[in-house]
Amino acid sequence: MHTDSQIVSAQPLDARSRQLRRHIVTALEGAGKGHVGSALSAVEILRVLYDDIMTYRVSEPAWPDRDRCILSKGHGCLALYAILADKGFIDVQEMSGYTSTGSRLGGCSESMVPGVEATTGALGHGLPVGAGMALAARIQGRPSKVFVVLGDAELDEGSNWEAALFVNKHRLSNLIVIVDRNRLQIAGPTEEVMPLEPLKEKWMAFGFHTVEVDGHDLAQLRRAFENERSTGAPKAVICHTVKGKGFPFAENDHNWHWKGGIDAAWVEKMNLALEEK
Amino acid sequence: MLFAFRDMVYEMAKKDKRIVLICVDQDIGLAKMADEMPNQYFMEGISEANITGVASGLAADGLIPHIVNHASFLTRRPFEQIILDTCLQERNVRFIGMGGGLATAHLGPTHTVIEDLSVMRAVPAMTVIAPCDADEMRRLLPLTVPWAGPIYVRLARYGKPIVSREEDGFAIGKAILLRQAPANAKHVLLISTGAMTNRAVAAANELAASGTECAVLHVHTIKPIDRDAICAHASDASLVVTLEENVLSGGFGSACVEALVDGSDLRPIPPVHRIGLPDRFVHEYGTQESLFEAFGLETHHIVKTVTECVQRMGIRRN
Q: How many Cβ pairs within 8 Å bridge chains A and B?
């Protein structure tokens, strides 16, 4: 059952969000397959982080004082590759090599790719590692913030909740948990496969200052990620999103979590969907 | 051996701010670090998956975390984190396994980890070390600081008897010849690691007294294994016997045989007999010593086994 706060705006995507999705189409066209739905739900989350929130140096990806973003739901890496290509960490041309032999851009993102902070893909890894990075920043007196983007179904993994205990214990207020709440996993709706609700209350119970936003609304995302507080509590932002956002034929369809057989006709449909309305 | 680790890591941490100790609901006697070095000491809850990820995150930013835990929980529960967060990304995490092998046999098979050497050495990028005594642990630890990549150290429960020698030196990945056979004498090469090394030395002395000459090669670093030393010392041996407090499946003896085969360049290799634990769980309770006895790992078993092998092979005694 969706509540009001879980309704995602049907507002059309702006030019930049459509352009980022075109990078994803380039990759899908090259590979003929890929994790489509899980990437498209996270595009605006990553866009806002890299456009408006995070401090980093494209020319110096290992700059110690940078903010870090870990895409724990590594299968959604096309969204990360798209923003990294857009920013110049990697060449846009590389997108078409997605999952091919000789390419750095695999079906899950690896830390050897400039701008990728941690190798992910096996689920439940990003938050512990991000907690370590946030603790390291505190120990070393760096201003770095750590943003960990978790898939909602990923929360089935117990390691996340071990990490939540740890983050709260150490009051790692330089760490922000972002949940891509698209409500679908491979086998179907999260609430059927493994119910997560009440999710906000769970994070609150673990000591996180928790807010819910429309995960495709740029202003709401900015406000949630920017919000500086003095309580010392870590923060969790539950982003209500649409799996497959931007491709009407794929939206809210768990069969588009992973899609094979992406031929020229599908690519045409995707490009058509990204044309200005 | 734990005390040797404890005392050394404390001194090292005082000098090197990168060294971080993470304990898992168990005080090893360094709680004072919480006050003295609060950024380098963390007593955490029973959450191995998270701790391994956290340590990998700390290491990603240049710290050198040492996770101290029972070898069983250290290696079993967070295996995927060890593989993906630590080894795949070559993070400098130190896994300090207390009581590997039969040391915690009183607590049964949930605690008795007899496959850690096999399992840890199977993971790419992992360095695996089983020091033979407390002195060797002291020589090892400073060398781990500049070592690139993750390390698993199996601490024997007891650091005694001391069989390692200062004059032999110590380098990660370099085997140590603890006992030489007389020049040109037919002899058996005993290759041992961890707590088996003191037994190998004792067995070699007994065997020599009864006319079977033995050399003893102590291989503290199971990975990367010192293939050159193993092949060189095996080349003039009539028989090679490997000794381990670990399952034979994929363990130390297997690593030695692989080294011999891979280093042979298609030439014949000497006969090999492996002494170790069988391919089954340890359901028996007891002490480390009583189970060494039960599983045929004690010095007198080694003497008997080597003697029988020599007899069966018809190796002429010198």
A: 97
Pairing of strands A184-185, A188-189: antiparallel
A54-107, pLDDT tens digit by residue?
999 999 999 999 999 999 999 999 999 999 999 999 999 999 999 999 999 999
Nearest in space to B121 (alpha carbons), one of B266, B247, B261, B264: B247
Query: The tokens of B200 are what?
Result: 């190998």
How many domains does chain B fold into? Answer: 2
Residue B123 sits in the same domain as residue B181: no
Determine the Cα–Cα distance for residues A262 and A213; give it in Å rounded to an integer.
32
- Written as six digits, the tokens of B99 are 């009581």
B88 touches chain A (CB under 8 A): yes
Determine the structural domain holding residue B223 and report its residue range: 166-313
Rounded to an integer, the average pLDDT of B93-110 is 94
Q: Which residues of A touch B56 (CB under 8 A)?
A: 128-129, 132
Name which of A190, A153, A149, A182 is nearest A251 in CA terms: A182
Instruction: Yes or no: say if A133 and B61 are a contact pair by the CB < 8 Å rule.
Output: yes
Please judge whether A118 and B85 are an interchain contact, meaning their C-beta atoms are less than 8 angstroms apart. yes
For residue B54, the distance in angstroms to the closest alpha carbon of chain A comes to 4
Is pLDDT above 80 for A228? Answer: no
Domain ranges of chain A: 13-273
**Do the domain assignments include residue B161?**
no
Name chain A contacts of B39, Cβ cutoff 8 Å: 138-139
Question: What are the pLDDT digits (tens) for B231-287?
Answer: 999 999 999 999 999 999 999 999 999 999 999 999 999 999 999 999 999 999 999
Strand-pair category, B221-223 with B272-277: unpaired
- B125-174: per-residue pLDDT in tens? 999 999 999 999 999 999 999 999 999 999 987 768 999 999 999 999 99
A135 interfaces chain B, CB cutoff of 8 Å: yes
pTM across the whole model? 0.96
- CA closest to A157 among chain B residues: B49
Q: What is the pLDDT of residue B184?
A: 87
Interval B186-229: pLDDT, tens: 999 999 999 999 999 999 999 999 999 999 999 999 999 999 99
Residues 87-116 of A with CB under 8 A from B: 111
CB-CB under 8 Å, B54 with A139: no
Partner residue facing A163 (CB), from B53, B58, B65: B53
> Residue B216 maps to which CATH number?
3.40.50.920
pLDDT of A5 over the 50 cut: no
CATH number listed for the domain at residues A13-273: 3.40.50.970
Query: Which residue among A117, A137, A159 places its CB closest to the CB of B49?
Result: A159
Q: Residues of A with CB below 8 A from B54's CB?
A: 128-129, 131-132, 135, 163, 166
Q: Do B61 and A128 touch (CB under 8 A)?
A: no
Considering the domain architecture, whether residues B138 and B191 belong to the same structural domain is answered as: no
Query: What's the Cα-to-Cα distance from A115 to each of A88, A131, A220, B72, B198, rounded to whole Å?
Result: 10, 18, 25, 36, 50
Instruction: Decide: B165 and B193 in contact? Cβ < 8 Å.
Output: no
Smallest CA–CA separation between A17 and chain B, in Å?
A: 31
Q: What average pLDDT does the structure give for chain A? A: 94
CB contact under 8 A, A133 and B58: yes
